[in-house]
Amino acid sequence: MNILCSRCGASKEFRYSAGNVLCTVYTQGWRSYGSALYCPECASTWDERNKDRPLPGPEATVSLIDYYHLSSKRKYHL
Question: How is 22-37 classified by DSSP, letter by letter?
C-alpha cells in the first residue's frame, strides 16, 4: 500500500495489515485530519498552521488508512 501526504506529497509504501498501520505508519508520525493524511514532517508543524485544531488520536489515522485500503480493493474487485 502507498500513502501520500496531503500537504507536501511525501509518500510511504508499506505492506498493509492492521499491525503495520498502527506500529509502522502511526508510530513513525503519520497523522490525519478529516480525510487527509500528513507525513511526520507536516504533522509535526500542524499546530503552527492550524491553531486551535488539534490532530485527532491514532484511531482516526488507522481508520482512514483502513478506509483507503478497503476502497482500493473495491476498485479492483467489482
Answer: IIIIITTT-EEETTEE
44 with 29: CB under 8 angstroms? yes
Determine the Cα–Cα distance for residues 69 and 48; give it in Å rounded to an integer.
30
pTM for the model? 0.86
The answer to whether 29 and 38 are in contact (CB under 8 A) is no
> Considering the chain, what percentage of its residues have pLDDT values greater than 70?
94
Return all residues near 12 (Cβ < 8 A) that are at least 6 apart.
2, 3, 25, 28, 30, 39
**3-class SS shares of the chain: helix, strand, coil, % to 5:** 45, 15, 35
